[in-house]
Amino acid sequence: MLESSCRIQLSTALHFFRKAFATGQETSNVAIKEQFYGRIKNGVLNALRSQILDIDGEINSVWIITNMCCISQEVTHLFVQANCIDTLTQLIRSPNQRLSNQTIWAIANIAADCPSCKMMCRKPKLLRVISYFHSYSNSVSPLQILSKLLQNAQLLEDTERRHLIWCINNILSGGRATMFSPVARSFIRAFSTTLLDISAVNRMKCGPMILWTLANLVDNTEDTTRIDMLLSQTLLIERVLLMFLDETNKMCHSAALRLLGNIAVGNDTQTDQLIEYPNFRKVLNSAMNSQEHRSEAAWIISNIAAGDPRHVDYILDDSDKFYSWLLSGIHSNERRFRKETLWIVGNLLATADQHQRNLLVSLGITQQLPILLQMDDVRLIEKAATTAAELLRENPWQYKLYLKLDILGCLEKTGERVSTCTFLF
Question: Which pairs count as long-range contacts for 275-278, CB under 8 Å and 24+ apart, including other chains?
Fold first, then answer.
């Protein structure tokens, strides 16, 4: 019946298989053997592409795809290799809300399967459709060029809205997504508007998903204009900071911190805008003192330290307290915490002006150089070697300490040459 050209027979078969692959309350006692999966896939996709189905038939077809893509990676790949995503992309724009929502669910399941499926779901055409659909659903005007896609759209119920957010989060998580600037801008505006609607976010329990999606959107060092788009959203950064500081909202903390960290990766002007928020200091202090978040805090600080001497001043505001924390990281058994704090040292020394380097030397930074020079990170070793040599030229009185700590031996191994003639006195 599924391979029939009769709409009634097709619709009956689709309803049967929807029940057969259903989960939860609709679970059927019918067991479908794997050997039939290929034929079922062909029948479902052919039915959808035949344009003879009514709305219920289309919904049942997409429902089958949704549930079959939860069975295994192999089954999902059957659908993806048959250009299922192109077919689903057309159905997202359906004026029927049930069909559109079910299609979104199907795409979300496919995107969650594996990296290659996720990349297939990042096709520009699909992202354009989803982004403007989402913008309209949040009463944000879509870009004029694609406004026709939304003429028949309706505001979504909370459940449907949450499915859409979940779908986009699945597509954009893991790796950097390439998209046109108007699409990125539409996503950022829509998600920012949603995040600022506190009651809606609490009802839908979607705060972490929105934060992770925004974090993924701006995680692109080759296109920092997305960070500008984010920073231009009125009240958004303050909202993110407050979400991290809210002890009753811990599910959002990791995502909020990552979003802030991705902003800190941006250019110096963007970092300036971030550190101007008084609550950002509170977030950093809280994260630094948290066993769960201190590694992420160290990563953020290392990126701030890689900017400009004025950013070094921000970090060294309470130099004694900060240096004690830094030492705890350098000598920690927690691998990431240790690595990120060592990067802080490398970036501080590379960025700092002479006055700031003198302060760091007085705090005892020289004694940490052997650890940096023996790390298994080539980039960090190169940075440490260059700054160690410069530090000795600026502070020749430390020559005996360099000898004692075998810093000169470490420098020689990296290929960095330092003339010792100046220091023989």
Answer: 275/304, 275/311, 275/314, 277/237, 277/238, 277/241
Torsion angle, CA of 169/171/172/174, rounded to 10 degrees?
100
The single residue listed with the structure tokens 């130099």 is 319
CB atoms within 10 A of CB 331: 11
Q: What distances in angstroms separate CA 41 from CA 8, 33, 234, one per listed residue? A: 19, 13, 47
> Is residue 320 within a helix (H) or strand (E), and if so which, with residue range?
helix 319-330
Q: Give how far the C-alpha of residue 78 lies from the chain's centroid of Cα atoms, to the nearest Å.
A: 28
Report the C-alpha gap between 89 and 86 in whole angstroms: 5
User: What is the Cα–Cα distance from 39 to 36, expressed in whole angstroms?
Assistant: 5
* Other C-beta atoms lying within 10 Å of the C-beta of residue 372: 24
Residue 125 near residue 144, CB atoms below 8 Å:
no
Which residue in this structure is represented by tokens 């303050």?
A: 238
Which stretch of DSSP H or E encloses residue 65?
helix 55-68
CA geometry: angle 404, 410, 416, nearest 5 deg: 120
Domain positions in the chain are 1-113
> Does the pTM of the predicted model rise above 0.85?
no
Q: What is the pLDDT of residues 324-348, one digit of tens each?
A: 999 999 999 999 999 999 999 999 9
Q: What is the CATH number of domain 1-113?
A: 1.25.10.10
Q: What is the DSSP secondary structure assignment for residue 25, as one 8-state letter? A: G
